[in-house]
Write a structure and sequence with these properties.
By secondary structure, the chain is mainly α. It has ten helices and no strands.
Length: 234
């Protein structure tokens, strides 16, 4: 893993551990919407009933609730460069971040569907102009260069969403997919929680656990998904 990858992983891990919120929650609160630059005449606030139905019947195979194959490949590649995997260290692909984003766009984030469509189209147009290939086909170094240009607002051809807004949104959703409760489709096998030492909902903490300053690693880690599968006694 390159120093660039290590720095990016360290930033996202630090942000998640420092905030402490994403690890124990699901979809981000509406406050994140303030980061999205939406023009009133371009936004499509469609009813969420159809999206919710698609969400409920999603295949669960990484995508298919909203994203088409082409967009899914781009989102997966982008998220992996934001949170690259390495031996013994899960990345975005390992944690099913793509699945999380796909399900979110078919449900709670349905109003961002056009944001993603336009943003991904502008991203590939910029990559074609700059590197003569779509984002997903670029090597890691050129993908990083594109992401850096987006973050700095230097990627050309972006109108709405702006390059910065698009980058910030995908970074936020990548973090959510890595560290939110697995019930929402990401954080597969608690990969993100284990990465930052978050214990999940443990049935019991010992006195030694509570007093220890070391990262908590004892299994099992129980999330909302496991609890939902537990029959309720009447």
């Amino acid at each position: 893993m390159s120093k660039h990858d290590e720095a990016r992983r360290a930033f996202l891990k630090g942000a998640a551990a420092g905030a402490g919120a994403l690890a124990g929650t699901g979809l981000a609160p509406p406050a994140f919407a303030k980061e999205h630059e939406r023009q009133p005449h371009e936004r499509h606030k469609t009813a969420s009933a159809d999206a919710a139905e698609v969400h409920a019947h999603a295949s669960g195979e990484g995508h298919g609730a909203f994203l088409n194959d082409s967009d899914a490949v781009t989102v997966a590649a982008f998220a992996e460069r934001l949170m690259p995997g390495a031996p013994g260290m899960p990345g975005a692909r390992d944690a099913d971040v793509l699945k999380y984003i796909d399900l979110a766009l078919a449900g709670a984030y349905a109003e961002l569907q056009d944001f993603y469509r336009r943003g991904l189209a502008q991203l590939d147009a910029y990559c074609q102009l700059t590197h003569q290939a779509p984002f997903a086909r670029l090597d890691a170094a050129r993908q990083d260069a594109v992401i850096t240009a987006l973050e700095a607002g230097k990627a050309t051809g972006f109108t709405w969403p702006t390059a910065i807004a698009f980058f910030n949104t995908l970074r936020t959703h990548t973090m959510e997919g890595m560290f939110a409760d697995p019930v929402y489709g990401g954080n597969k096998d608690f990969a993100g929680w284990r990465l930052v030492g978050f214990p999940g909902a443990q049935p019991l903490f010992t006195t030694a656990d509570m007093q220890s300053k070391d990262a908590f690693t004892r299994a099992p880690m129980i999330g909302l998904q496991a609890q939902a599968k537990t029959p309720r006694r009447t």
